[in-house]
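Hey, resending since the last one bounced:
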Amino acid sequence: MTEKKHDVLTIGRSSIDLYSQNIGAPFNDIKGFDAFVGGSPLNIAVGCARLGVNTSLLTGVGDDKVGAFILNFLKNEGVNTHCIPTINGTRSSAVVLGIEPPDKFPLVYYRDNAADSQIKIDDVIKAKIDDYKIILLNGTALNIEPSRSATFFAAEVADKNDIDVFLDLDFRADQWHDYRAFGLTIRALLPKVKIAIGTEEEILAATMSSTSQVTIKDQQISAPEIKGDIDSSIEKLLALGIEKLIVKRGSAGASIHYPGGSKTDVPGFPVEILNVLGAGDAFASGFIYGILQGWDLYKSCRMGNASGAQVVTKKGCANFMPYLNESMSFINERGGF
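The structure tokens again:
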């Protein structure tokens, strides 16, 4: 096999994240914000880079100060930015976030004409996917053209070149015109995916029936609780051809599911939670690190759990991803793998 120049390419969202400085305050009472960066693929790229992985990010930024802010952060973190286009006529994304532990973390997206939704097939070609061992795709990039076609094209190129395709389901309900469209699109992509990663809610959303009722109010999709049989949903996704499905279960850790119905539970690392946002992305970065080291899935998930556990004690996402020595110390202090 030809030696690869890079380890991982993540594809999709990037943003400036404005986090509440007033932890515990209701959103309406926030007095100030800290400027960090975010977006699931960006968070994962930074998390991987901090663990020593040769990582690139394919996203889009606008010709604006926010785009420059994002690019500067990535370069300082050692993430390869050579395949990030500046797309004229678009805006770099922004997210405003509140922190109300233990269970309220409201966020508001500003993604009208988002630059990262405007990456195209040509941008994927320029990224030279065959230079990578793994590409990680993102569910939100499937919500609109042209990033939807770019994502499918990336999966097709990777599949033809025997490059492992990972998918972070990343279900963001308010980014879809119809909940059912998320499931339809995800299910169309999964036959080219080796490993998919998601929460129970994301897995249920990915298997939502096209006949499920979704109500519309004031031109926005209401947010009914997503219900269903999680075991049946896992089985349905695995039947589409993926080799493994990793279910993130928060403080309970993660579960590895295989075609045929077998599974392995991987315990987490209990910690006091400050902010859950970004924990799943930290998990993915730790998991990818383990896979690249040749570790088995159990040990890789334990590394992912450790990364996620460290981030939930912090007030942001990418800016607080752990470094390798921090993760190893964290794991060793808690009994090892």
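The chain has a mean pLDDT of 94.

Sorry for the duplicate.
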